[in-house]
């Protein structure tokens, strides 16, 4: 039985990873989070020890150090990671993604423990192609993101949008520094829009604030409100199914030789879509899943980024991962296409929130 420590095991990624690890029967998890609602079905499992607590810089050593000895890996997933918070709460974002978190790196360095950290594709910032005058979107050298080559290009400090990206970037650099100076093994993962069940709350039902795009669009579909396209919905994202992402994480954990001291993009190149295309596809799928034809004409409206997120908003224009490293070192490739990813994810959302409004898939006529 391999012992692992997971910070943020009760979140979206953490809950799926916990499902998979416990199902394998090969791992014992020491897991920290402030809420275990998403993994409540596992709380009686003897292979999960739950620690319900917010971990900050000061409590890291006191809380986690007693469990580090002999751990196979320390997996860090805990973060503030919704775009609305990067703009509305940049202090909280930087605290969460760097200040409260870096002591974990010091702890792993002290014990030479393997730190497996989920960073973000947002560290790349904007594409180089967005800064050159001609339309260079067809030149992969200017938009494709390669872990060990592509520059990390973000906007001015006054645009708080980059608070998350730069905090994550400094975290990555601090990991590297401890690797070079103290031999701490690490794996850094840059997720590309992992989608799936339990991804985010629905405002007014089980959370408050502005969630990530999938849950924003789902809220609009459930509440009969227009789908809001920020700045015309022209930005691209590369959407990856959570089960494929968890496959990558498991392959990393099973193959330290292939994954240690490396940064990996984990994304589905075939899942690239503009936010406008995403909205159109979700309207169609909503009709198919619920049997309600009205969704095909569900209203869509445009809104500026500043109005939607607040002052200091700026967007990443496009994110296309080079995943050749994950393919060659881990034998990993995304298997689930975009439509299927959305169908599975939206079905879960309609199952969880749709019954009252006759939108549960079992109520489809
Ligand atoms: N989901 C994605 O597509 C995506 C994309 C880019 C990066 N990431 C990164 O992956 C990681 C996991 O993301 P997620 O989507 O599961 O986010 P999430 O918000 O669903 O989960 C994070 C969990 O961490 C917990 N947490 C936060 N700070 C904590 C603290 N100090 N102490 C204890 N618990 C704390 C939260 O309660 C939450 O359950 C994050 O680091 C995120 O930046 C995810």
Summarize the structure in words.
The protein has a 7-stranded parallel sheet with strand order 3-2-1-4-5-7-12, sandwiched between helices. A two-stranded parallel sheet has the order 6-15. Strands 8-11 form a two-stranded parallel ribbon. Helix 1 links the parallel strand 1 and strand 2. Helices cover 40% and strands 16% of the residues. The protein has one domain (79-363): NAD(P)-binding Rossmann-like Domain (Rossmann fold). With 365 residues, it is α/β, with parallel strands linked by helices. The mean pLDDT is 94. The chain has helices at residues 12-24, 59-68, 83-88, 90-99, 102-111, 140-143, 162-182, 213-223, 242-254, 256-259, 275-290, 305-309, 324-330, 338-353, and strands spanning 2-7, 27-33, 48-52, 73-76, 115-118, 144-145, 186-191, 194-195, 227-230, 236-238, 240-241, 262-266, 272-274, 300-303, 320-321. Nicotinamide-adenine-dinucleotide (NAD) is lined by residues 7-8, 10-14, 32-35, 54-56, 77-79, 81, 96, 100, 118, 120, 191, 193-194.
Q: Main attributes?
A:
about 375 residues, alpha/beta, two-stranded parallel sheet, 15 strands, globular
């Amino acid at each position: 039985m391999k012992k692992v420590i997971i910070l943020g095991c009760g979140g979206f990624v953490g809950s799926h990873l916990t499902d998979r690890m416990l199902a394998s029967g090969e791992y014992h998890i020491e897991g920290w989070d402030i809420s275990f609602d998403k993994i409540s079905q596992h709380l009686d499992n003897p292979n999960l020890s739950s620690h319900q607590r917010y971990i900050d810089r000061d409590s890291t050593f006191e809380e986690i150090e007693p469990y580090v000895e002999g751990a196979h890996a320390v997996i860090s997933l805990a973060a503030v990671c919704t775009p609305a918070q990067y703009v509305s709460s940049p202090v909280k974002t930087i605290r969460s993604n760097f200040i409260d978190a870096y002591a974990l790196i010091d702890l792993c360095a002290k014990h030479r423990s393997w730190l497996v950290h989920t960073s973000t594709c947002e560290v790349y910032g904007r594409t180089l192609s967005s800064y050159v005058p001609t339309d260079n979107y067809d030149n992969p050298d200017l938009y494709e993101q390669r872990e060990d080559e592509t520059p990390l290009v973000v906007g001015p400090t006054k645009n708080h949008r980059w608070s998350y990206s730069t905090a994550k970037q400094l975290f990555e650099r601090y990991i590297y520094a401890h690797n070079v100076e103290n031999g701490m093994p690490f794996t850094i993962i840059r997720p590309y829009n992992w989608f799936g069940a339990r991804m985010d709350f629905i405002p007014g039902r089980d959370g408050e604030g502005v969630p990530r795009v999938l849950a924003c669009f789902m809220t609009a579909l459930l509440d009969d409100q227009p789908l809001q396209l920020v700045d015309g919905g022209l930005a691209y994202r590369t959407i990856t199914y959570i089960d494929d992402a968890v496959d990558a994480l498991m392959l990393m954990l099973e193959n330290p030789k292939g994954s240690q001291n490396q940064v990996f993009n984990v994304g589905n190149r075939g899942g690239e879509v503009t936010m406008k295309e995403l909205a159109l596809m979700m309207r169609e799928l909503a009709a198919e899943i619920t049997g309600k034809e009205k969704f095909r004409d569900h209203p869509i409206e445009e809104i500026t980024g500043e109005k939607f997120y607040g002052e200091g908003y700026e967007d990443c224009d496009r994110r296309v991962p080079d995943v050749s490293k994950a393919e060659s070192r881990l034998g990993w490739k995304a298997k689930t296409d975009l439509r299927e990813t959305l169908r599975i994810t939206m079905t879960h959302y309609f199952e969880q929130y749709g019954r009252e409004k006759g939108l549960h898939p079992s109520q489809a006529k």
